[in-house]
Amino acid sequence: VQLQACGGGLVQAEGSLTLSCTASGGTFSSYDMGWFRQAPGKEREFVASISWSGGSTSYPHSLKDRFTISRDNAKNTVSLRMNSLKPEDTAVYYCAARIRDSTQFDYWGQGTLVTVSS
């Protein structure tokens, strides 16, 4: 499966942004989807995941009140809504896919840059 993320950009602190990722080349509903991010000089970190059906989501505790992941299996897309953005949310955001019920994300998009200004 190939993944194409978009929607990044420059946003002011406390603003909102929605990232989207479109999948092609596979059966989208066969994959759990996730978002990760990597800030300059830092390791990649988990942001959110959603099960193949959309019935289950997961977030790190620090982000669950501000970020929302969703998917549309008819459109082969997964989205990440980010509210109340902070400068520390600045990072390259990557969407990823894993075969459903597996533990590892094996497919990655190219990343989209989100910059939050103070």
Brief digest:
This protein has 118 residues and is mostly beta strands.
Please summarize the sheet with the most strands: 7 strands, mixed
End-to-end distance = 37 Å
Radius of gyration: 13 Å
Number of strands: 11
Question: Would you kindly provide a written description of the structure presented here, covering whatever features stand out?
Answer:
This protein has 118 residues and is mainly beta. It has no helices and eleven strands. It has strands spanning 2-6, 9-12, 17-24, 31-38, 45-50, 57-58, 67-72, 77-82, 91-99, 107-108, 112-117. The model has no long low-confidence stretch (mean pLDDT 96). The strands form two sheets. Strands 2, 4, 5, 6, 9, 10 and 11 form a seven-stranded mixed beta sheet that branches. A hairpin with a 6-residue loop joins strand 4 and strand 5. It is globular and about 40 Å long. The relative contact order is 0.32. Helices cover 0% and strands 53% of the residues.
